[in-house]
Amino acid sequence: MLLVINKGLLPFEDEMITIVKSTKAFAEYLIYHHVDFMQNIENKYEFDADTVMKLFRSSVFSYSEKRKIVHKLSEDILSQPYLANDLSQILVKTKDVVGIKNEIILGIIQNAKLVDDRVYLAIMFMEVNDNEEDSVSEALTILGDSYGEIKDKSKRALLVKNDINKELLEYLKRIGYISTFKEETSNKNKGNYRVYHKFK
Questions:
Q1: In DSSP terms, which residues pair with 187 in a beta bridge?
Q2: Are residues 137 and 156 in the same domain?
Q3: How many CB atoms lie under 10 A from the CB of residue 17?
Q4: Strand order in 158-160's β-sheet?
Q5: What is the dihedral of CA 64, 77, 98, 29, to 10 degrees?
Q6: Which of 11, 16, 24, 28 has the most beta carbons within 10 angstroms of its beta carbon?
Q7: How many domains in the chain?
Q8: How close are the terminal C-alpha atoms of the chain, in Å?
Q9: Taken in order 79, 83, 89, 94, is the CA torsion positive or negative?
Q10: pLDDT at position 153, please?
């Protein structure tokens, strides 16, 4: 079927979509007809996770177009752990998590592999939840490791000094979740940020 698709012998029309969507070549069919597909994205499509993964990893779609595809997906598809990397990249690139349930966003943060995307998505999660303390703490917990230690006001958590951690800490300082952070100068902890909380 791939040969027939790539020769343009299967037109983009409802009857053909009904036939092709039940095959393993549905993703290739939509990719070949990507312009028509995106122009008709508001139509009802049924995707399985493998088809979605192929669409996400195709270079013919821009990140904004992939975000429109995300909007059409069921919660079951969005919750698939092996789509987390693709979903995190799409949401971070488009800076858009509107309309996605909190538990799904947290699942993506938990299962994605790229640390920068996970942290940036956590910031987006905090923001979309109006920086409520519980939501901030929940996001830090999902990030795990040293990030989770930021919640403990009795500790002065250490985070590796890098751009994304600086952005996170600046954000937490701006919303009043932490007091401040400073670059460690001691030989033992050099190359880290030390986190400080306000005490009443």
A1: none
A2: no
A3: 20
A4: 158-160, 192-196, 180-183
A5: 20
A6: 28
A7: 3
A8: 69
A9: negative
A10: 86
Q: Six-digit token pair at 8? A: 């343009």
Decide if 100 is inside a domain: yes
How far lies 29's CA from each of 4, 14, 57, 62, 177, in Å? 10, 13, 14, 17, 48
Q: Range of 80's domain?
A: 59-143
Please, what are the averages of pLDDT over each run of 10 residues along the chain (200 residues)? 81 93 94 96 90 97 97 95 97 96 98 97 97 96 95 92 97 96 89 87
Same domain? For 84 and 106 the reply is: yes
User: What pLDDT is recorded for position 129?
Assistant: 96
Residue identified by tokens 């070949």 is: 32
Whole-prediction pTM:
0.92
Identify whether 170 is part of a domain: yes
Assigned domain for 181 exists:
yes
